[in-house]
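Incident review: delayed structure delivery

Summary: a single-chain prediction request sat in the queue longer than the usual turnaround. Root cause was a stuck worker, restarted by the on-call engineer. No data loss occurred. The affected request and its eventual output are reproduced below so the record is complete for anyone auditing the incident later.

Affected input:
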Amino acid sequence: MPKKFICMLLPTLFCSSILFSQIRISTEFESGSIGKYEFIDSAKIKTSDTDSLKIYSVNIFSRFDPLNPVDTTLRPSARWYYFRMDGVKGKQIFLNIKNSEAIRPFYSYDGINFKRFDASENINRGQIFKVFQKDTVYISHYIPYTYSRNQAKIGEWAQKSFVKVEEIGKSLNGLAVDMLTITDSSIPDKGKKRVWIHGRSHPSEQPANWHLEALIENIVADTPHARDIRRKSIFYLVPMINPDGVAGGYSRSTSTGVNIEINWDRPDSLTMPEVKLLKKKISQLTSEAPFDLFLNMHSQIANSATYWIHTAKSTNERFLSKQILLSALTMGNRDLYSPKNQSFSDMGSRYPEGWIWNQFGEKTLPITFETPYTYFNENPAGEWVSTESLAALGLNSFNAIYDYLKIEGSSRVIIEPVRFSTRKWENIPDNSKVFFGDSFLKSKKEKSKITFTRQYLEKGNYRLFKWVVGPSGTTFGERENSWEEIGYVIQSKNGRFTWRTNNLVIGESVDAILLIRD
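Output delivered after worker restart:
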């Protein structure tokens, strides 16, 4: 038999070992992680008289987090994997990824620019089949968002005059936990809305940091909306609260195995340093007044974005309605997040939201937002999660925060009705509905006039929207609890703005209007 045919589809163990010696797998870089790998099989197939194709089969076992010394019954996670393969150019690589999901994960030839595997390369869940075009490839569960990137972005944002960076403490392994304070310091802080946002409790949740980065970019942008929100509010942002877990390539824990997301009600002896320093800083910042909004940014394996909305039985009906308002505002045009995606759970003391609730009640709205890893709206034929789609979601989140806080801006303006006849309109403080302020209006008669005014509005052309009042429930119609565009208004000069309208039918609900300047 000719030597060139020695390695066939069913190779000998000798040939397999020779072929596999050409491939190397490593994780010796930031956030790199696998548990172990096994070379299973290899083959050399003759594809023509002069060419052949080498095929390699490899089992990849993602690494489990250490056993949790605080919550000993909690099963360790092994979601995150991120590894490098060398010696793969022109070879058919078959990867069987175990312990975690492999639903069109990512690869990169330089460790910087990542691309999703095509559906044809990931036909079976957990299995990747691809011929790589370069000798080195990085493969990851999602596009890595490393501690180094976080520090670089913080350094970039710190160059802006309205951004202050403070190291609020260090992790167990000595990495900095940094907080950004963003506000227009030329305006006194008294009376400003106050927002706390943190992310990356769980290291594997890379999309959460990409989403949060996009949100911060909108807050610091040189746009009318961003300038308005900085004038009227203060943001306290800790983008990465578990740097040890991120740097070490863990999934849901610190380097010691503790899940800090559920470490907020433990005795001091069992509370991690990261949670202690967060509690200390939050207590300092809320010593005189609570936050208006407290956002906890995460990612989930479910194929949709969601808020974890706290039930009325564990809070109250009005608080539920406020959460639904924020949720609905975040939906934007509902291509990335829609009513059916909402999730509900009881408020729990072990979570940061529960810790905030126990101190401030409904004075603060604490809530978790989750981005998916795969695709949005449970629709694999629709939009898949990318840095671009997460940036779009970041803009939706920015607009939602702006509107929820009712920022009195110059280019995005919410106005509630101020003049109406009580004979023709009923004031409804109904917590089973979603609305701005303390109540909405319901008409008693047809063609009842209602007036919206603002003492000062800048000259310009504005798109006009109305808020469509809907139910405060687990789901609602696609047109309910949303801004509906109804027209266009022209403010001919700076000064007082007045807009009047009439209802069409008895029982029609009317709430706020929104003006967005062109």
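Verification: Confidence is low (pLDDT under 50) at residues 1-16.
Action items: add queue-age alerting; document worker restart procedure.
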